[in-house]
Design a protein that fits this description.
Elements lengths: L2 E5 L2 E4 L4 E8 L7 E7 L6 E7 L5 E3 L7 E5 L5 E6 L8 E9 L2 E4 L3 E6 L1
Parallel strand pairs: 2-11
Antiparallel strand pairs: 1-3, 3-8, 4-5, 4-9, 5-6, 7-8, 9-10, 9-11
Length: 116
């Protein structure tokens, strides 16, 4: 069973930084994409960033380019999202996500709140 456990959310001031972690377990996939979505109150869930296990290619939403950096450990079982220059608009629940074998897996989410 695939499990994704997020950590690292919390409260930050505008301009500050936070680092999210997602520990993945129960993997049997050779090829997958792992990353982050977020959902703010009253808004749809949106993709934030992702990284491919096969070639390490990355994706960033335009709203976070230049501020957020995604990375993974050598075993590719933990993915990190370094969030710098945070803005109040970054306030949301952040969800870790894996796409493999045409199936999406989700973590439970971690709250990020950025105060102005």
């Amino acid at each position: 069973e695939v499990q994704l456990v997020e950590s690292g959310g919390g409260l930050a001031q505008a301009g500050g930084s936070l680092r999210l972690s997602c520990a993945a377990s129960g993997f049997t996939f050779d090829d997958y994409v792992i990353g982050w979505f977020r959902q703010a109150p009253g808004k749809e869930r949106e993709g934030v960033s992702a990284i491919s296990s096969s070639d390490g290619s990355t994706y960033y939403a335009n709203s976070v380019k230049g501020r957020f950096t995604i990375s993974s450990d050598n075993a590719k079982t933990t993915v990190y999202l370094q969030m710098n220059s945070l803005k109040p608009d970054d306030t949301a629940v952040y969800y870790c996500n894996v796409i493999a074998d045409l199936t999406m897996y989700w973590g439970q989410g971690t709250q990020v709140t950025v105060s102005s």
